[in-house]
User: What shape does this take?
Amino acid sequence: MKNLIVANWKMNPNSQKEAKEIFNAIREGVRGLSAEVVVCPPFVYLAGLKGLTLGAQNIFYREGGALTSGVSGAMLKDLGVEYATIGHSESRRYLKETDEIVNLKTKEAFKYGLKVIFCVGETVEERDAGKKNEVLERQLKIGLAGIENLENINIAYEPVWAIGTGNNCSIEETKESIDFIRKFVKPATRILYGGSVKSENSGAYIKDAGANGLLVGGASLNPEEFIKIIKSID
Ligand code: PGA
Assistant: This one.
């Protein structure tokens, strides 16, 4: 299976001009590389970026109508967006997304033929309390309840304590979590690692931890570094 490398720009950059510059530099840099590359910019930039596969950072779980601030699967599909990131820990935390909401969003994405990057991961408190597997199991069981076509799901294992901290998860611990997650998905389901990925640590997640891709936040806003990450696993 092809490795999947996802750029998660979060709420960056501050202008459309910068977004285009970063995007175009990535587009040129990944030519000829074998990984599948997806860029998830903020919604407002999606329409202006062309030439690489696009993903949304979220989706709302209704078809349309009276829902101020919502963005529907139909709108994303119409823009040519192919992926939707769902259940990112920042959306769980700041937008108060529960496992049940994550489940509704995943089903909604599938209704429109979007592929899903489904994020799971434990907080530092949950890890310290020895509850990591319990949390992952709950997030997967409730979040994926009633979903048959798990082939179109990509699970991103992102320990919350590793996101944006520079404190990336060790290869051994990542491997353990990936092996655990595999019990709940299909053999064809890709499992990604995310959390302070940079070019010095990226290769080992694929080669030694058994990940089928990476979800890259901060480093994906620096095209040179992001391209290095992609090359490290080529
Ligand atoms: P980070 O973010 O690479 O900046 O840690 C990863 C993510 O949140 O997807």
